[in-house]
Design brief:
2 domains; 0% strand; elongated; mainly alpha; 225 residues
Length: 225
């Protein structure tokens, strides 16, 4: 039975719309706040394009992105081996590890409809078998670098405007100001994942694949709707 693409891709479409909507909202509200500060200091306001290409805006966006991708990277990699009894976010305790080639439908165990790189073996299969974590790690590293460069640029502008030495990028990355901003985001992401893992042991959301069936036992592990 053929379904409407809007129905079969509803989750990704909705979250894409939420992402772009919130990013636009951040840009417009950030511009308004920035120009309010400029006015308070008797300085000239800037245009929308000037703001979204400024280090001030870029560092805020990149800071959020790197913490989100770090969260997912760690969750994806750590759940290969680590389990949580009773959580649908965890594999069953006896299923810890990478799984056999038969379990993973790799090589001779691949199905006709399996992705090509799952069948070929060697380096290509290894890359494909770890591609989700590799992409998450790459985006995290790149967004972290963008955050550090844009953050240093914004910091240097403030320092120069106050006739102070901005120092170097490496000094900024090792500074308390940089890590204060970074760790604020990290701790919130870790708290969110921790809460999801623990609360899903005892709480339910009927119909959600992130929840166990309503009547499932609290200690049932790796079970979802």
């Amino acid at each position: 039975m053929k379904h409407n693409p809007l129905l079969t891709n509803g989750l990704s479409i909705t979250f894409a719309a939420l992402f772009f909507g919130s990013l636009a909202g951040q840009a417009f509200s950030g511009l308004a706040y920035f120009n309010e500060q400029q006015t308070a200091e008797n300085l000239e306001g800037i245009s929308f394009w000037q703001y979204v290409t400024s280090s001030s805006f870029v560092v805020d966006v990149a800071e959020n992105w790197q913490s989100e991708y770090l969260q997912f990277l760690l969750f994806i990699v750590l759940t290969v081996w680590l389990v949580q009894k009773g959580s649908p976010e965890s594999k069953a305790i006896e299923d810890r590890g990478h799984g056999s080639e038969e379990d993973q439908l790799i090589g001779k165990f691949a199905k006709p409809e399996s992705p090509k790189w799952a069948k070929t073996g060697g380096v290509k299969t290894w890359i494909f078998a770890n591609s989700l974590g590799l992409v998450m790690a790459t985006v995290f590293i790149l967004s972290w670098l963008v955050q550090s460069v844009a953050g240093f640029s914004a910091f240097a502008e403030d320092q120069i405007s106050n006739l102070q030495d901005p120092g170097t990028w490496s000094e900024y990355v090792a500074s308390a100001e940089f890590w204060n901003r970074t760790l604020q985001n990290w701790q919130s992401e870790f708290l969110a994942v921790w809460s999801m893992v623990i609360l899903s042991v005892y709480l339910r959301q009927r119909g959600s694949p992130e929840s166990k069936p309503v009547g499932e036992a609290h200690d049932a592990t790796g079970v979802s709707n």
